[in-house]
Amino acid sequence: MALTPGPAGQVNNDLYHALGERWYSAQDDPVALLRAESRMRNPWIAAELGRAFPMDRVKVLDVGCGAGFLANYLAQRGVAVTGLDASAESLMVARAHDVTGRVHYETGDAYALPYAAASFQAVCAMDFLEHVDDPRRVIAECARVLQPGGLFFFATFNRNPIAWLVAIKGVEWFVKNTPPRLHQLRCFIKPAELRGMCADNGLRVAELRGSVPKLTRAFWRMLLTGEVSDEFAFQFSRSTLTGYLGMAVKGIDGLQRQGLSFQ
User: Most exposed residue of 34, 80, 147, 199, measured as fewest CB within 10 angstroms of its CB?
Assistant: First the structure.
């Protein structure tokens, strides 16, 4: 389906309403890159939750959850997950793929989360902060609904010419059906800026790592065909030059309690 992008300079978020089952099946679309990213980071997030809260059934909020790549994964591992997104169409797909039937999905506004303060032990904003005009407001809301010692997980893109070349132009050139304004460089966030946004809201970044594609046959096949197979994979990297992800902890006391250190 052809989509009409928003005004110049804005990210084209409308495309997610029309994906339907292609969220989980399309290989000729950038959504396949999102699936590959989730395959890399979902196990890491689950492991960090288990390490920080070994005796609890953790309550997690997934902000901008899309079709539930993370939320459904965590639910299968016994986590109590709430998934919030502005797209009712995406949430329909997420519910259909929730094999546990236990994820609580609802539409909502990330600028005004419909939850009381300190409602969750962890909040996730994966591939989301670069899709809003005011990520600082989103982070403030995430911090508000976090319990002291709670974890904030994030994933986004760095803002620099290399990230523009790889994450924006590279996807446009080498992945089929990439829509106009899938991403905008002005919406990318430098790691130092994100640390500052977190610090302003009582969140201390405990871990920060980059992510890059694995240079396998699936990667080279994508460059030749424009399709992203299920074998395409990302891996963690020391470099945060393009994409990066991390974990922050609410409150210094919580950071020390969980045996983490500032990096």
Answer: 199
Residue 65 near residue 86 (C-beta atoms within 8 A)? no
Least Cα distance to 47 among 207, 169, 237, 255 occurs for 207
Coil, helix or strand for 194? helix
Round to whole Å and give the CA distance between 131 and 148: 27
pLDDT of 78 strictly over 90: yes
From edge to edge, which strands make up the β-sheet containing 146-157?
Answer: 104-107, 80-85, 59-63, 120-126, 146-157, 243-250, 203-213, 234-237
Q: For position 17, what pLDDT does the model report?
A: 85
Strands 243-250 and 203-213: antiparallel
First to last CA, the chain: 44
CA 240 vs CA 114, 156, 191: distances in Å:
32, 10, 8
Distances from the Cα of 168 to the Cαs of 34, 58, 242, in angstroms?
14, 35, 10
Do residues 71 and 99 make contact, with C-beta atoms less than 8 angstroms apart?
no
Closest CA to 147 of 44, 70, 251, 261: 251
129 neighbors 169 (Cβ within 8 angstroms): no
